[in-house]
Amino acid sequence: MRRFHVICVLLLALALSGAASARTGAPGDGSLAVRNGNGTIGIQARGGVIGHFYDGVLTVRDFNPDDNVSEVVTGAERSHVVNDQVTKYWGSDVRFRYIGGKFTISVKAFNINLAAIGKGWVTLQGSKGTDDDGTFSLNGSSPQPITDTPQTYPLQSATG
Predict the structure, then answer these.
(1) Whole-angstrom distance, CA of residue 87 vs CA of residue 147
(2) Residue 139 CB partners (closer than 8 Å, separation 6+)
(3) Contacts of residue 142, Cβ cutoff 8 Å, sequence gap at least 6
(4) Residue 135, strand partner residues
(5) Which of 11, 37, 82, 159 is deepest in the core (most CB within 10 A)?
(6) Coil/strand/helix, residue 133
C-alpha cells in the first residue's frame, strides 16, 4: 500500500509539472516533494499542490475565492469554514489538491506525502520527539531529512 502511495505522488508530481509548464509564468517555478513527513508543512505560493496524509489537519487559505479555483479534499471526516478564504479539514487518509491560484496551505499530520510546483515559500518542521520525520526535496535537490527545527525555503528555480 505504501508503494502505491509513493507511485501516486510521483504520478501527481508529473501531472503538476505538465500543468505548470502549460500555464503562463511557469519559468522560474520551483518544486517540493515530501515523503513520509511527520510534523507541519506550510506552503504559501502561486501554483499547485497535491498530497495525502494519514492522520492530521489541513488548513487551506484561498486568496481569491472568486477565481473559480478551489481545493479538492477527500477523506476528511470533518471540515470547518473559518471565513470566505480559510477552510480547515480533519481526518485520516485525507487527499487534497489545489491547482492554479495563489494559496497558503498548512498540513499538520503524520505520514505526509505531497508534491508542489510554483513560486513562493515553504516551511517544514518535524514532530518533536520522533526519530524520523521523513524527507523533502526542494527545487530538484537531493532528499534531506525534515528536522524538528523550523526550516523556511524559497519555492522557485535557481534562475527564478
Answers:
(1) 27
(2) 30, 31, 32, 155, 156, 157, 158
(3) none
(4) 35, 145
(5) 37
(6) coil
Report pLDDT for 159. 67
Structural contact between residues 136 and 33, judged by C-beta atoms closer than 8 angstroms: yes
Non-local CB neighbours of 11 within 8 Å, separated by 6+ positions: none
**Cα(121)–Cα(10) distance, rounded to whole angstroms?**
21
CB 59 within 8 A of CB 88: yes
Q: Are 30 and 137 in contact (CB under 8 A)?
A: no
Q: What is the pLDDT of residue 26?
A: 64
Give the up-direction half-sphere exposure of residue 139: CA atoms within 13 A in the CB hemisphere: 16
Radius of gyration of the CA atoms of the chain, in A = 15
Q: Quick one: cell of 159?
A: 534562475
Instruction: Measure the CA–CA gap between 93 and 116, rounded to whole angstroms.
Output: 19
Residue partners of 66: CB distance under 8 A and separation at least 6? none
Query: Whole-prediction pTM value?
Result: 0.80
CB-based contact 127:160 (threshold 8 Å): no
With a cut of 70, which residues of the chain have pLDDT below it?
1-26, 159-160
